[in-house]
Sequence to fold (156 residues):
Amino acid sequence: MTSAAPVTIRDAQSCDAAAIAQLSRALAAHVADPDPGGDTALIAEACFGPERWIEVIVAERGGEILGLAASCRRFELHTRDRTLWLADLVVAEGARSQGLGSLLVQALSRRARALGCTAIVADLWVGNASARPFYDRIGARTNADIEIRVIDLPRR
Fold:
């Protein structure tokens, strides 16, 4: 039995936009969201443009991107708390249960600590039953003090 190539966790680069798009489409399908399509222009702009909206780290093995964690910085004025919002965490279906999700969260935790964050906050779709055991394993807790509300904006 041969061992698998080592996994590298690194910051995403603009050349990773197609792999990020592929993983984001897989996540959308998994949580029953509409397919966002394969166009990488918005990903490139949001992740790597001059006014970045999101930061992405990737798990790579043998030159193939197998997972990602996307996060945004948050600051709450009334508590003075810095947190990272874990916007998306996804591991390719064939690479799940190999520890890649945990490695991505560990790397994100190091980044959060370096930024002086008090926590990483993640939204978990209530229908995503397969992700709940993962979050339980890594020690994520439900916050009964917060109710998420969404203010939908009209599409242009």
Observations:
- Strands lie at 7-11, 55-61, 64-76, 81-91, 119-122.
- The domain at 7-137 is CATH 3.40.630.30 (Aminopeptidase).
